[in-house]
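Researcher: Next entry in the queue.
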Amino acid sequence: MVKWIIATFFGMLIGFMTYMMIHLGALKPVHIEEKSKPGFYLISKIHNGAYHKIVPIILDAEQWAKNNNYDCRFTFGEYFDDPETVEEGRLRSRGGCLMEKLPDGIEKNLPEGYEIAQISERQYVVATFEGSPGIGPMKVYPKVKEYMQQRRLTMNGSIMEIYEVKGPKEMTTTYLFPTALPGK
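Model: Structure for this entry, 184 residues:
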């Protein structure tokens, strides 16, 4: 009887873990390439502290854009510090909406604490992942680190994660790792 209960428990645990892996996209691939990305604009607010706590800023910017009829198809988090070397309370980031062009008059309509930044065209290692952004960094960052080491590329700036919700259960995160030429 005890063996049956233990076997049932472990079977349910394995089933739950398998479901979560599939649901979160742990089995989905990471696509990596090097390419130049055209410039864009960020409507953003600064965040200090744990990176996972930036979500309310991103949701607030998205809601503001929706309420004001601005296209905020892409939201983002930009992460300035390495969480392996900077203590959690000192991590710096910003989040909000990413726009290819600015609507007329948007500067006068920004929510309090938000600003506009223009990002120029530049070279990136670009990784895309169609799973949960919650597990994306655990899958994507090690693969990109390995990719960059193999090609002798170095980081040259902050990492940006661009989030695109495509449906109720479908999302793509594009990771931008700005690069410098080898040896620079």
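Model: The helical segments are 2-24, 55-67, 136-150.
Researcher: Noted, moving on.
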